[in-house]
Amino acid sequence: MLQNLQAEESYWDAKHEALSRDGLEALQVDRLRETVRRARRAPFYRERLQEISLEDIRSPQDVAHLPFTTKQDLRDAYPYGFLCQPKDRFVRLHVSSGTTGQATAVFYTRKDLDTWADLMARCLYMTGARPGDTFQNLTGYGLFTGGLGFHYGAERLGMLTIPSGAGNSKRQIQLMKDFDTTVIHIIPSYALRLMDVMQELGLDPKRDLSLRIAYLGAEPYSEEVRSRVEAFYGVKVFNSYGLSEMNGPGVAFECRFQNGLHIWEDAYLVEIVDPDTLEPVPEGRLGELVLTTLTREGMPLIRYRTKDLTRILPGDCPCGRPHRRLDRIQGRSDDMFILKGVNIFPIQVEQVLMAIPEVGNNYRIVLDRQNNVDTMTVEVEVTDKIFVEDMRHLQRIRNRITKELKSELLVTPAVSLVEPHSLPKNDGKAVRLIDRRNL
Ligand SMILES: [Zn+2]
């Protein structure tokens, strides 16, 4: 059975997708040496890598002798401290928003953009997208790497690409109808919001549209949201992972077996470390994802601490690719909040809510402090159908949500049911957490 599956698998880049594990590791060693050699030309790494001898890099594990790089390092060296080529060799830069501090910048040479587009095309092809598909990109363009990253990958693959951008839901739907869109890229909160718009218009995507594949990424989302989106749109949803420091999307992606995300180990060297001790954790154990770029020529990054918590899934994938698989990201260590001494990820709240059918597609978490006690209120939109029903029913739903949240989070939040479509709407990334405790 396994061999049959492997024989059927077709690759965008067989040279890098279908090589043996030994072949992959040999390639990693070559590329890691080259990366260190190049990185030494960047002001940030010049002294830090001085003592490293290239001959001492004999296995991928030898990356552990190199120093870590953090987001703070990127901020401190802003804007040019990580460039290892003259400025006139670069053709693009993306700046990540400085919501929690100073901005960071990532620069691309022409070759870096080419490599990235090819990596993205590899991801999309792996999920079954083909030339002949129409791809509609419903994410923001501009400085957000998700927009242009998917755009160039889709064109490289040969899909007819519609750069529709985020928002303007009615026009999005019109474009889907007029050009028989089959593949979409959309952020999870907008996918939920667009569902509401389609329902209001009386549109059933399974009957009225041609969609078959959806890529969801850029925000954490739960399996419950995936199920909702798949059921409503009639698509197969694929999970995408990337971060702007590592180009953007295209770092890891689900194959059609959807048992974790293959991380492209010919382009990124993977480590999972304990976030406190920075020592490697055993395979299968949760830890912080640390990545080293292996193909970037203009701005290599060594042992970059992503702050994303995940694990390497043990075992081989039936698709036959030797690239190991990451578990779904558990959340950024930055997203976590602490309430009454308990660590909570917003995604835990989403998992509970989205599994309850009476819950609509929008919610938010409000943290506050009253009389020196931290409080947490979860505001939940209910579906149109429920809101007109009697108060006793609403009370039952509220009790159920409270009970299930308490069992998941180990603290008891206040739950407030609100009218459908009454919470603030967002066509960009959703703001799910309002923390008023330090105001
Ligand atoms: Zn696979």
From TrEMBL:
Coiled coil stretches, renumbered: none
Ranges where the AMP-dependent synthetase/ligase domain occurs: 88-291
GO process terms (BP): phenylacetate catabolic process
EC number of the protein: 6.2.1.30
Record's keyword terms, sorted: Ligase, Nucleotide-binding, Phosphopantetheine, Phosphoprotein
A GO molecular-function descriptor: phenylacetate-CoA ligase activity
Catalytic activity: 2-phenylacetate + ATP + CoA = phenylacetyl-CoA + AMP + diphosphate
CDD domains according to UniProt: PaaK
Domain AMP-dependent ligase C-terminal: 341-437
Pfam families: AMP-binding, AMP-binding_C_2
Regions that span the bilayer: none
Subunit structure: Monomer.
Function: Catalyzes the activation of phenylacetic acid (PA) to phenylacetyl-CoA (PA-CoA).
Family assignment from sequence similarity: Belongs to the phenylacetyl-CoA ligase family.
Protein name: Phenylacetate-coenzyme A ligase
Organism of derivation: Desulfacinum infernum DSM 9756
